[in-house]
């Protein structure tokens, strides 16, 4: 048996046993789906549907609002207005590094099984991606810049979501999880999201800001020059913050935010460069899936070379 084959066999065995592995930079996590979006039956989007390529707003909207499963390839830059509905069982994926959706955003509402990958979102007026009352959603390898309000907001009883390998640039309210303190009747037991290998470059707040979700998993992200705060756990939330790289970020994570009371936050194995030490406390429910955890010190190089569009 070769060394590579032997190592793969060992990794497979350990993952099957539920171990979380720390890997060196040379073996960065692959771009496959992991985390909460693998749960509840998994997330396949349009599955094996024959891909359709769109290059206009009318074609994009028609394809993503179809009642049939679809794999939609976005070619070039498409301007839309407002928040456009995305129907269930859809994969929306950009072609190359230049695919863009500008001016408006995607509303993933009251649906399940949606994948959004490799899109540049710019200049949105409300949210770039809004997920509400939806389950099994994967948001991966997109880039977000120069928009209004939230870049990726997940709220209102949504569940089983993974947000991975995205790049957020010079934005204020990056990612909200749970929209209000008085929505516990819908949100308790839900809002379970994994955030991993995202790159926050000069962003301000909400990376993410969490209510009610427990456990929420924030691992192997690169925080570069975050100006207000990184992660906030509030209002009955339980957030595991592990293996992240915080650089020039005075407030990497804390409990409570604004008028929202403190939630629970467990921090472990993070790497800090010219950054604060963070505020952690309480306990968090156990993570039900296995991941390959990159060593925190290697996250900057891994994420900066792998996050955003044009990598898949």
UniProtKB/TrEMBL annotation:
MF-aspect GO terms: pectate lyase activity
Domain of life, source organism: Bacteria
Location(s) in or outside the cell: Secreted
Record's signal peptide: 1-28
GO terms under biological process: polysaccharide catabolic process
Sequence similarity: Belongs to the polysaccharide lyase 1 family.
Name recorded for this polypeptide: Pectate lyase
């Amino acid at each position: 048996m070769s060394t590579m084959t032997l190592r793969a066999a060992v990794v497979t065995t350990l993952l099957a046993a539920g171990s979380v592995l720390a890997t060196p930079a040379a073996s960065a996590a692959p771009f496959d789906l992991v985390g909460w979006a693998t749960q509840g039956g998994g997330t396949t989007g349009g599955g094996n549907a024959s891909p359709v390529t769109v290059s206009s707003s009318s074609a994009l909207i028609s394809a993503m609002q179809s009642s049939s499963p679809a794999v939609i390839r976005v070619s070039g830059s498409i301007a839309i207005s407002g928040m456009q509905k995305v129907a269930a069982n859809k994969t929306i994926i950009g072609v190359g590094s230049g695919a863009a959706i500008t001016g408006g955003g995607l509303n993933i509402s009251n649906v399940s099984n949606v994948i959004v990958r490799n899109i540049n979102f710019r200049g949105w007026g409300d949210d770039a991606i809004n997920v509400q009352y939806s389950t099994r959603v994967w948001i991966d390898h997109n880039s977000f810049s120069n928009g209004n309000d939230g870049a990726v907001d997940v709220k209102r009883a949504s569940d089983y979501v993974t947000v991975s390998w995205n790049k957020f640039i010079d934005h204020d309210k990056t990612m909200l999880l749970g929209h209000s303190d008085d929505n516990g009747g819908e949100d308790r037991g839900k809002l379970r999201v994994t955030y991993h290998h995202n790159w926050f470059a000069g962003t301000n707040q909400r990376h993410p800001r969490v209510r009610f979700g427990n456990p929420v998993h924030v691992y192997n992200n690169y925080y570069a020059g975050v100006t207000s705060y990184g992660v906030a756990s509030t209002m009955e939330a339980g957030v595991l913050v592990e293996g992240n790289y915080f650089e020039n970020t005075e407030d990497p994570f804390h409990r409570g935010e604004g008028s929202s009371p403190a939630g629970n936050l467990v921090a472990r194995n993070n790497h800090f460069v010219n950054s604060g030490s963070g505020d952690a406390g309480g306990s968090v429910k156990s993570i039900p899936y296995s991941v390959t955890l990159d060593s925190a010190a290697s996250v900057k190089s891994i994420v900066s070379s792998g996050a955003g569009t044009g990598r898949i």
